[in-house]
Give the backbone structure.
Amino acid sequence: MRNRLARLLVHAAVPACALALAACAPTPIYKATPNTVAVPPQQVARTPERYGSSDVIWGGRIVQVRNFPDHSEVEVLAYPLDGSQRPQANDVGSGRFIAVMPGYVESFDYPAGGLVTIAGRLGGTRSANVGEAPYVYPLVTVNQSHVWTANELSSGRSNVSFGVGVGVIR
């Protein structure tokens, strides 16, 4: 009888724990379309013809903003995104891309060093230089963009952790 009760409790506890952990997971800010490809910018730069005008959701660290008479370009050093599409700037960079935005973009709103996530459509590539090195940038026509605040970057992380040993609360 006791073994049966213990088994029943374990079978009930496992799904409950899984549900509780899933509830802690942050949700993505942008919804992928059927046309969205999950490839890094460096892969698109190598074979742009393969991706055509696919949709992408990319993010990374803002390098600079350039304003032109009818549009602005935000150069971004790409990083992988987490489950809520926040750039993981402590990871390895995955290339650079240029986010093309209609109209004027205030560089104060897109500060160099800030983290951004964009959703948009691929629009070809452009060859330029990074320093003295030749570089191919994928161009993304931006539909939506989000510059992350420090509070947003630190919130949404699960406070649940597992381990053995002594724990320290920060």
